[in-house]
Amino acid sequence: MRRLLSYTQQALAAPPRNPRMAVVIGRLLAIAFLLCFGTGLYSHFLQEPEPWMRFSTVPAQLYQVTQGIHITAGIACFPLILGKLYTIYPQLFQTPPVKSPLHLLERASIALFVGASLVQITIGLLNTYQWYPWKFGFREVHWALSFVVIGSLAIHIAVKLPMIARFWSRNSEGSRELRGETAVDETPDAAAPVAESAPVGGVTGRIFRWIDGAPEPEPAVSRRGFMTAVGVSTATVVALTAGQSFAALSPFNIFAPRVKGTGPNALPVNRTAKAAQVLDTAVSPDWALTISNGRRTVTLTRAELLALPQTTVELPISCVEGWSQMATWKGVRLRELLNKVGADTSQGLKLTSLEKKGGYRVTQMGPEYAFDSSTLVALEVNGDTLDIDHGYPARMIAPGRPGVLQTKWLSKLEVEA
């Protein structure tokens, strides 16, 4: 078995399979995961902020950019992690499989990182299509796995730091030694003799006959060809999906689940009025928006809201699934409604939707958003009355907020003490 593992590792050797290439691909993969982690933290705390947290409302497209980067970097991880696995694949057959406690930690951290990463980016991709073929809660698992991925990545980097430093740049010591070589960083044990054995049939026999003297086949993939393949693959998956987030790439948006300009009011829709079970309550003549601050309460019908001074703003809808689109909104400034109940600029807000159920039926809004001049109780979008799927009779729209927090089918606004 030792002989078979040793020569299998040697048979898999190829120009791209060396420590320098592993460091180059690993560096790109680490950047992609760190971008995902940082932007993911931002998205999480926007949705579940700590009491002391305050967020910027400018630029209005901030979340559009951060979440677009989050999804795009996550998609880029697919070809990068496959490229990384290709470069280190021969190491699966090293002998002995575990050499020391440190080596065991290294292999365990790699196994944990690869397994958690593949699950993380796969469920993240499926979430962009709002397809959940599992029974666990996506948000909770995605949040927990992000720390597993980053933690195992940190352990792996710490363990491999000497090798990373040795092969970090093209002109580093290890890179100079490898230039022009095809071997991987750990060659088979030259002292391990190839024992004589009786002929063996089948695939095993062919393997041992090659070990016993047949010439090694020439590697089919060069370093340059491998890097070109990884680069083109990464650029392709990014270019063909990032159009849902970034307008410049919209013409190339082939695989992303949302296309700009489609849907009611020329806007895509995630959650429909039917799914939210508001088809009757949203069009009821009895609907009115209630704004309260302790004992002070104001109730306004849609006609009364339309009679108030109207403001027009350009703000994006930016969803956690990665798609976003700029739109023209018209409605009443939220701060003007809050002034009617004597709200203080340091107070936050609780928003309640007509939805029957759902994780975002009730949401919170910090004072930085509630009193921003661009935040509206919107009644129109893109020059037309809000479609029921976009929140008729009234919805919230604020700068720099995730789409799930831009509450549709508003029912109540409650100032929090």
TrEMBL record:
UniProt keyword Membrane, yes or no: yes
Membrane topology summary: Multi-pass membrane protein
Gene Ontology CC terms, in alphabetical order: plasma membrane
Location, primary (coarse class): membrane
Subcellular location field: Cell membrane
The keyword Membrane belongs to this UniProt entry's keyword annotation: yes
InterPro entries: Cyt_b561_bac/Ni-Hgenase, Di-haem_cyt_TM, Mopterin_OxRdtase_euk, OxRdtase_Mopterin-bd_dom, OxRdtase_Mopterin-bd_sf
Segments crossing the lipid bilayer: 21-45, 65-89, 110-129, 141-159
Superkingdom of origin: Bacteria
Cross-referenced SUPFAM superfamilies: Oxidoreductase molybdopterin-binding domain, Transmembrane di-heme cytochromes
Keywords: Cell membrane, Membrane, Transmembrane, Transmembrane helix
MF annotations from Gene Ontology: electron transfer activity; oxidoreductase activity
Cytochrome b561 bacterial/Ni-hydrogenase domain ranges (all copies): 28-158
Any single GO BP term: respiratory electron transport chain
Domain Oxidoreductase molybdopterin-binding: residue ranges: 285-416
Pfam families: Ni_hydr_CYTB, Oxidored_molyb
Matches recorded under PANTHER family: BLL0505 PROTEIN, PROTEIN-METHIONINE-SULFOXIDE REDUCTASE
Name of the protein this chain belongs to: DMSO/TMAO reductase YedYZ, molybdopterin-dependent catalytic subunit
Biological classification of the source: Bacteria, Bacillati, Actinomycetota, Actinomycetes, Micrococcales
